[in-house]
Amino acid sequence: MVEIFPFRERGSNGVRRVSYVTGDVTPDGRELLLNVETERDGRIELAFPTVDLQHLLTLLLILGGKAAVNGRFKAFSETYDARALPLHGVSLGMESDERGVLTIEVGAAVLSFSMPRASMVEIGRTILEMTGTPAG
C-alpha cells in the first residue's frame, strides 16, 4: 500500500474534492488500485490497467504545466517534499539542433521531456563532475 500526501480541500463548486489517496497493485501487476477519499462523499475505489500508467502520468504532468502557467504555480525542489523514485532507465537524445529529449523509465512508465540544449549540457556537466570524470 502506498500513501500519497493528503490534498487540501478548496472551493465548493459541486466538484468532489480529493482529500487523500492510497493505492496498491494487484498480485499479477496488471492493475493499479486507487482508494480516493473525499471529505464529503467518502471513498471511491478505482482500478486501471498498469499499461495505462504512462498515459495517466502524461495527462497529470500536462495539466500540472497548464496549472503552473494559469496560476503561476511552479514546483521547486527546495520547497516541495518530493519522493525519490527508483529509476529504471535514462537516456538523452536530440529532437532538433536546439532541443534535446530526456527520457526516463520509472516502473511501468516511460516519459520523455523536451528541453533546451543548454539544459542538456548542464546535466551532462553535472554528471561528469559527480562521477569525477574530466569534462572535455
Oligomer: single chain
Strand content: 35-45%
* Biggest β-sheet description: 4 strands, antiparallel
Tally of strands: 7
Query: Topology as H/E string?
Result: EEEEHEEEH
Number of helices, counting only DSSP H or I runs of 4 residues or more: 2
Q: Structural class of the helices, strands and pairings?
A: alpha+beta
Strand arrangement, major sheet = 1-2-3-4
Unreliable sequence segments:
none
Secondary structure: helix percent: 25-40%
- Principal-axes geometry comes out as extended
Q: What's the end-to-end separation, in Å?
A: 46 Å
Radius of gyration: 19 Å
Indicate the mean pLDDT. Answer: 81
Verbal overview:
The structure is a single chain. The protein is extended and about 55 Å long. It has helices at 53-71, 117-131, and strands spanning 2-4, 18-25, 31-38, 42-49, 89-94, 99-106, 109-116. The chain has a domain at 87-136. A hairpin with a 3-residue loop joins strand 3 (31-38) and strand 4. It has a four-stranded antiparallel beta sheet with strand order 1-2-3-4, with no helix packed on it. The protein contains two helices and seven strands, in the order E-E-E-E-H-E-E-E-H.
